[in-house]
Amino acid sequence: MSVLEDCYWIAENIRDADRDEIVANSGQTPLEALITGFSTSDVPFTIVGDGVPAGIFGAGPVMPGVGMIWLLGTDLLLKNTTRFLRESRFWLDQCARPYDMMFNFVDARNTVHIRWIKWLGFTLINLHQEYGVEKRPFYEFVRIF
How many CA atoms lie within 13 A of 136 on its CB side? Predict the structure, then answer.
């Protein structure tokens, strides 16, 4: 589980690709995006690496049976990728419990997230050429459970 203070740590140390994605999508600051995700998730979870928050993720309802999944993190996520990948599927299953389908959008420049999303079994279903406040290419992704 997460505590609100984790959002502050991640915001100060967020991956450049995640910061760029937040700004391109919503124009929010990393802290605003993290607090939004934290407060709208069923249960937000913090990933810890080297004793500090490395990432926060969760999912929240959009409509009955449909959830929006998200993850924002620091470069610490890339430090121990084997463990992160091994545990990702378990935690995805935890987030997916209340949902029949989960989705979100990912900045086409965020290649690390795109590889991870595919690895988790999500499908990129559409490339929106002008998405978000910056009108950049974003992929829409989905997984049915």
Answer: 17
